[in-house]
Structures are given as C-alpha cells and as structure tokens.
Amino acid sequence: MGNSLKEFIEALKEDSHYKRIIADHRYVPPQEAFFSDIDILPALKKALSQSGIERLFIHQAEAIGKIREGHNVIIMTPTASGKSLVYNIPVIESLLKDQSSTSLYIFPLKGLEQNQLEVLNNLLKGAGLSEVFISKRGHSIKRAEVYDGDTSQHRRRLIRERRPPVILTNPDMIHMAINAYHRKWSDFLRKLRYIVIDEIHAYRGIFGSHISHVLRRLRRLARFYGAGPQFIASSATIANPVELAETLTGERFVLIDKSGAPQSGRHYVFINPLESPYTEATRLFLRLVMKGFRTILFTKARKITELIYRWSTERAPELKDLISAYRAGFLPDERRLIEKRLFSGETLGVITTSALELGIDIGGLDVCILLGYPGSISSFYQRAGRAGRSGQESAVFFIAIKDSLDQYFMRHPDEFFNKSFEAVVIDPLNPYILRQHLLCASAELSLRSPSQYDGDDILIKRSGEVIEDLLKEGYLRRSKKGNLYSTRRFPQKDISIRATGVLYNIRLVTGELIGEIDEWRALKECHPEAIYLHAGRQFRVLRIVPEAREVLVTEADVLYYTHPLTEERIEIIEEQIRRPVAGNLSLRWGIIDITRRTRGYEKKGLFDGMTISRHTVMMPEHRFQTEGLWLILEKDTEGYLMTQGYDHPGSLHAVEHVVISCVPLFAISEKGDIGGLSYPGLFMDGDKRPVIFIYDGAEGGAWLTKRLLEHIPQWFKTALRIVEECGCEDGCPSCVQDPQCGNANQPLDKKGAVALLRRWLNLTGVNP
Fold this sequence. Notes:
CATH topology of the largest domain: Rossmann fold
Distance between the termini: 48 Å
Radius of gyration: 27 Å
C-alpha cells in the first residue's frame, strides 16, 4: 500500500488541476525502534508475550521505572507509541502483588473507555487474573469494568457491590457518582493505588478548570480513607505537559518525552484550493476511497461534516455503504456502530469533527485529510497520527480554508514545521468554578478550613475569599465545631463540568430523539426556520422550547443552509490588570459581562455558500460573565484614520477579527473559545475612546486571554503580517473576514487595520 500511496501522490503532482494548488509536499522518513529491558513479573511477562509484546520501548521502560520509584509520571510521546502499556503494566503488577489494590482509569470520552477495556482485560486474564464474580444468572464482573453513563443501573449496582479492582470511567462519573457518593466507594478508595489520566491534553479551558477540582476532590476523599494514590498521565505533544499535570492534580510530576517507538514514513501535502475548499475536500476524499485507501477527513464544524457527507453520497452513491459521517451529537449507539465498522474495515472512509481526534481505536488508516487548520500544532499531529498502519507509509493532506492562519501556513510551510507546540491553559482559580466545587467538597466531607480543600498556597487564599462569600450568601454554614458544610443536598447535580453547559434535545415532532446540542448553539442556530443537519439528513426547526430544553424539528429537503446573525453587548464588571502599552494606548484585563442573542439569519446556497436572502428573528438573550482583555486606543484614532481615508469602525472591526484569528498560535484554542467586539467610542477613564474587546468565549473564562498578555508585541506583529501578505484588495476570509461573524463582516476596512497595527507596533518600539 505504501508504494501505491507514493504513486498516488506523484500522480496528483502531475495532474494539471493539482499542480496549481499543491503548496508544499515533504516526506518524513521512517524512524527505527529503540528498546530497553526491565524486569517484569513472570505472569505478566507471559501475558504480554501472548499479546505479541516481547520488549518495551525506551520511553515505556523509563516511565515504568519512575513509577516504581514512587513518582507521578506524565508521558508525552506520539500517537500509537504504546503509552497505555506505561500504566497497564504497573496496575497489573500491583494486582499480582496485592489483589485487594485498586486503580482508577479516567478518560475524557466514553468511547475511549470501551476501547481500552478489552485490551486491559485480555492482559489481566493472560496474567491469571480472571473474573471476580459470576452470578447464577451468568452475569460476570471482570477485573476491569467500565462505569459510566452508558452502564445500566443493574450493572452499576453489581460493580459497586462486587468492587472490581480496576474501574474505567470519565470525569463526569467521578464528579456525579463517585465523589458525590463516596461512602458507597469507601472500600475501593481505601485501597486506591493508581489514578490514570489518559489524553490529559483534552482537559483545557473551562472543562479542564472543572476537572482540576474534580481531581482535587477525589484526592481529598482518597486521603480521608487512608490512601495516597500515584498519578500516571499521558498526553499528546504540548508546550506545558508538567505544568498542566500539576495544575490539574495539585501534585508534582516527572516528564517522559523521548519516544523509542518506530514510526512509518509519512507524506505531508499542503493544498491551497482556488475554488471552494469543501468541494476540493470532497473530491480528494472520494478519489482516495475509490482507490481503496482507508481515509479519515477532519472538518472544523458539524455543519461542514454533514454537508461533505451529503455531497459525497450524492456524487458517488455506490460508496454510500462504505463511508460515514461522525460527530458529537450522534447518539451513543450510532457512534459505537461507526467505530466498529471503521475498525473492521467495513467502512473505508469517515468524515468527522474533532470527535475522532482522541485515541479511540478505529484501526490503521492510510490517509488523513485535514480540512482547515485545527487550531493548534498539537491537534494537527494528533489527527495526523490517525493514519499509519504498522510498517506502511501514510499521507496527510492539509487543505486550507479561506482562513487567516490556514493561508499563513500555506505561504510559510517551513514555519509550520518549525513551529513550537502551544500550551494548554486552565484556570483552577476561576472563582465561578471554585465556588461550585467548594460546595461539592463541603457536601462530600465538611471542611475545617480552606487549606483542607487543597494545599496550594494561591488556591488556599482564593478558597478563603470564596468561602466568605458563600457563608454570606447562605450556601455554606459553620457547625458548632467550626466545620464548613453545604446547605444544599447534592450540589453536584446542578453543576455541568463540560464546556458545552446545558444540553438541549433535538426531537422530531413525533417525539423521536435525533441528537443533542449545547444551550448557546441551540439559541444561536436553532431559531424557527433554521436548517439543522444530522447524518446527511436535513431538518427544519419548528420551534425551540427553552423551559423544556428541547428543539422541535421536521424533515426537510432544501438547497440551502442557514447562518445566524447575532448581536452583543459588553459591560466591564471588574478591572484586575492595567498595563500601559505606549503613549495613550492602554491594555486592561478583568471580568466582563456578555449579553448576546440571534437577531436574524441568512439563507445560503448549499453548494456555493452564496447568500440567497436575509431574515429577521428575535431569540432569547444568552448572558454570561467571563474573562477578557480590552485595548483602549488613543483619543485621536478616529482623526488619524479619517485623514488617511480609512473607515474608523471598519478598521477596528478588521483588527478585532485578525487578532482573534492569531490566538491559536499562542494557546490551544478553537473557534468559539475566543470572542470579540469593537466600539468606535466608549467612555473610559472620563474620555470617549475607541475600544477593542477580546474575551474567553466560555462562561467564567479560562485564562486564555490572560495568557495573551505575555505575547502582545508578537501577537500584533503576526496579525500585521497576516493582513499585509494577503493578496486581496479589500479584505477576505484569508485575512480580516470571519465566516462566523454575527454582523456578516460589516463594516470592515483592511487597509485601516494595517495602519492601526503598524501604528501600535511603532509606539511599542517593535519593528513591524
């Protein structure tokens, strides 16, 4: 297959169409394996041999050695480098030495649990550790069991009662079912030896900030029962693995990041389409599948996933049974069936969002297509790692969309391959999140003081401040002995730890459930007459029922899709950081209040994306507080722009768009993680000044904008380079236009944006 793949790429490069649009092609040669030998218990060594594992790679041996010495370990090596053995071997060894010891595996997604379960149980069985319970009715409890939202109530009860030594779960279940009901888990927690955190890089932003407290609460409960578990974490390549692991858990970690795993040769092909990138992706996807290459196509949006799947089945109906769409919002049974068919090879091609980026085992694929830069170098290589069967070459096609970063990397591919990995940012000090988890912690075990929640000095100080607020508001009370306890019973049930927040069900008028959607996207995109796409089918929204958290739809068959138009208002709640930049230019950071709603929508052509018509609709407001920074411009900005013939509001709006597009270069983020708004005139410090707001898109904030304070000159310089290098005349999606703009990209002034950015860099003494 490797030779055929090479021939396929060479044929593309000779094709008259692709000759014009291939921006770069480079080949990364294979890497040989490096092994190291360590002592392994005979029973486990036999089990590994039965699974085809005779020797360990150097990173596996080094990590296991550090774990045996008692260290918490974070392992950061490429996809498919055998990271799971790093935690499976110590866990099985602990059971062979003491069958009463327990371990907890935590995965960010339910699909990952199921994926690891069979591998682990096979190793346990091979080592002589079989079922712990078989009932008269034939129900068995194995040494390792999944305990999550898909586990039936009957089986959950069996698992709690029979206590298998290894539980595979996710953060949601720890938050709601283990921490909240820890007395039912006392025997398990008392003997807890290891806590495994897989795919740790997935815990970012608001989600990661919540997980840091879920893990602290778990650690506190384990200490209460007399256990001191070790942490073993794994991660894709990021800039700050140790910082992230330590912030998530409150513990010290040792990093293992020198991989000894072999890597097959891989082709990277950058494609910059002259026409629609979605048409180009569909064409290439079908061409690869028709040649028999097992292919995964990653998109950046659910809607695009559905559109490409629809176009593919319409253009090549003979492939309908060989390809599939896959995304969040699909029901669990749908996702499991697609995963199974991919693994078995029944499905040759899949079009997906980031939902398949993490390590769900879908078998060895030949090709990965990335339609649009996924937001970080880390995510790019994580997705690219989905392709590459053992010993065979693979290919990664990066198809640029009309986006500023995509076009930047098409012009500078060397910078892409030389770029450092980005940091994952979380904020356990976020007071909105902290107050929620202090309530949970005090309901689980009463607190005597803030220091009993966590030993971090900064967190103790912030906890003390939040506790005083909770006491004043009546959410916490002091007992006669001085202990703090929650006045609410099971506060865990009212807290969503996922960044998506509250979920709405999408139902046909007949009552059939077809999918789920988070609250803001429901209020934004599911207005009356909106077109909702699911598994290649179109549905027209009849109405949204916020009080029931439901969207009612009916099937449709139309040649357009809908794009919402939104409006926002911003109010500054608390300024926390004030930083002069130069002259009258000032930068502030703090807490802001956002009010937004959908005020209308556009109908756009299904195949060309052209606007057909525009309509008015008024949806309920969505209001939340978050963190953000605001740039207060010089008082003479309007006059400066007008004397040069530039549009004042349009220049500010264009700068807002391009600086937001650069954020992923400095911290891992995606569309929706960052928002912005510009005001031509706002009263600040007693004067009417132009102001540009950049804010964290999730409620409460996640320190993304705070991290940007460390990169201001480079941030502005990169933004200027993106705008100046774009060959368009008045602004396009490759520089200052944003396809998600709620104001339909009106007004925008590209040349005015260049003038402003150059002026700021000159003021700060940075050579543009």
